[in-house]
Structures are given as C-alpha cells and as structure tokens.
Amino acid sequence: MKMFRNMLLLTVGTLVLMLGIGFYTADPGAIEKPPAETVIRLFDRIAFSAQEGKGAPLLRRWTQPVKAVLIGAPARQEDGQIRWADGVTAMLNLWDSLRGLEVSVAGQADLAALKAGTAPAGNLVIAVVPEAEVAGLNLPPAAAAAVLDTRGGCATVGADATVLAQVMVVIRDDLGPTMRNACLGEQLAKAFGLTIESKLAADVFRVRPSGLSFHGQGRMAVELAYDPAMTPGMPREEALKAARTALANRGVE
Length: 253
What we know:
Elements: H1 2-6, H2 12-18, H3 28-32, H4 36-48, E1 61-62, E2 66-71, H5 84-96, E3 103-109, H6 111-116, E4 124-129, H7 141-148, E5 154-157, E6 163-164, E7 167-172, H8 177-191, H9 198-204, E8 205-208, E9 211-214, H10 216-225, H11 236-249
Parallel strand pairs: 1-6, 2-3, 2-4, 4-7
Antiparallel strand pairs: 5-7, 8-9
C-alpha cells in the first residue's frame, strides 16, 4: 500500500533506530508460524508485564469501535516527510487490520476546538500540543510531567481502565521527528491496552523496505487480547488459559 511505503519516512526509521528492530529476522519461518507457547509468552508480556507490582494484572481492551480524533500537528516538519495526519492515519490503519479491533479516524481539529468542545466526537484523542498548553489540558500530574519531560515528551491518559472507553495520547509539538514517532508508536500500543517496549518491538513488528506490518507471532499475540473469549478485567491466569484455548481452536500448537 502506498501509504505504508510512505510510512518509511515517519515510522519505520523510528522503529529501526529507536526500538532496535532489524530489517530481517534470523528465522523468518519461526516468527511467522510460531508454536503456541511462543505466542502465549509474548501475549503475556505485552498484555500484563507493565502491571506487575501494581496488584493483580488484569486484561485491558476496547469493547467498542475506536474512533480517533487528531488534534494539532508538530511545530515543524522536515522536507520530504509526509503530513503528520497521514502518518498517524497509516499507523491507525495498521491496528485496524487486526482481527477483533475496529479503528477509524473520526476527524481532525485544532487545540482550540478541543478545548471548546467543538472537535469531532471520538473516543481516542491523539493531541500534539505546545509545551505552554500542557497545563491547560488538566492532565493527571504524572502524565503532565511525562509530557513536559525533555527525555520523553508524551503520555497516555485513560489506558489504565480495564474497559478502554476514552483515551487520550498527548505528544509535545516541539519534539524532533525521531522522538515524536517513537512516542506515537509506544503510546498507541498503550492506548490499545498493551505495552510494547523496545526489547519486544522486534517480536511484534516486521520492518522491511516495503513497509511496516505485524510479524505472524506479533499479530497472533496482539489479536489474542481482542479474541471474543477475552473480557476486560479478566485476571492474568484466566486470560492465559483462554488464550491457549483460542490458539488451539485456530490450529496453533
């Protein structure tokens, strides 16, 4: 798809440089058609590892279609780079390709419209905002601090709920393209109830000169969170048991 080829300028370079993904895997067959236990281990890590030490880990997921609203744009964009909105839309399309997850873009607006309540209706807001406007968003203190942190510059609010219903991703508008795109990739994963850290990115995403997609095992692991057998708030062990059954029903052993 042309849009995914264009994403090389926005996202693939970020995943390669920031998340440490190589263009090829040592064993493509194993990662495209992995055994069930490999998928289960990956699902366990992306769905529950971030909750360790914070009480009993519970499954987080959406139960309704995700309608994204794009707010604002980077303060500057480099020559030859595709429009921010086009790149974000392409990334959302990648998540929409997953079985059990429906994602679309409801519209775009500026920050003034968001504050006035006149932005398009949606349940996932992806906002790129100036540093001076962060305080006016009334974010939780930890999220506001993360957005203002020079080592980060982004945060996600609302993704701690078991039933994801209203989530906001905030990215500071003065970040350079590499950091900005890294924020987009990591925060979108959080917005969908998952944690995909740099050390896991190569197990989830496939990066080739032709574009970005999910590995076979990455797709299977992420789709387990949105399998009909999974319910929001499901305890970790119950979810892992249901995941094994779901994979067996698909012929994955």
